[in-house]
Request: fold
Amino acid sequence: MTTAVATAPVRTTRRWRGFGPLLRTETMVWLRDFTSVFFGVLFPSVLMVGVGFAIPGMRDPITDVPPGSAWYGVPAIATFLPTVLAMAVGTLAVLSLPVTFATFRDKGVLRRLSTTPLRPQGMVVAHLLINVGTSLVGAALAIVVAEVAFGIVAPEQLGVVVLAFALGLLSMFSLGMLIAAVVTKPATANAVGSLVYFPLLFLAGLWTPGPIMPDFVREIGVYTPMGAAAQAMDTGWFGEGFPLLQCVVMVAWTAVLLPLAARLFRWT
Reply:
């Protein structure tokens, strides 16, 4: 019994030996890909600035809603921010991550790693950390740009916004990992990711944000991970109460998809 307990940590340590250099190397390689850096870090901010300055009236306060509405008196561009934050996560989770793992699988990278002291799980964890970290940077930059360019007000319920963002991150990366688990070719991953990503954007309110979103779109969107995240952050930013349904939806997506992705994941 003593021997088994003593050797288990040693085996675990050996399995993850070299993970630090792997993470640094993969991060440097990822940073050389301008497309990933642009869409992961810069695109949310570029979209905010483009919409805010290119579309007339987006910087004006909203007055054509009931005075008691959460959006009354808020600059129109502010209603766009929760959707942009959800998009910052979804872009990497649904588009970038599956293509990365499909490329590794297609080129036999994961199979070759299985013959080295570093297990292929290390590559999965490394790219999850890279993409999650990039999502956080992209979202933080979008908030800073929105504040500097448009004077976005602080959230009414900061804790709700942070919780909604965290649950959105978990649910959308669970969806992305499920796609990454089964696709075998980069082109297939890109096609499947796009088929999932763009309807999610629509239901999250990218084209019809906040007060102009039709009721039927909002009612459908609440049951999608990106739509639930955007609506929950919207409530935390401008409204009152707790977005219970949206949070339950995101937890449910995570609870179902993450174990399924782990079960279906193929190394070759």
User: Anything to note?
Assistant: Residues 1-10 have pLDDT under 50 and may be disordered. The chain has one domain: 2-264.
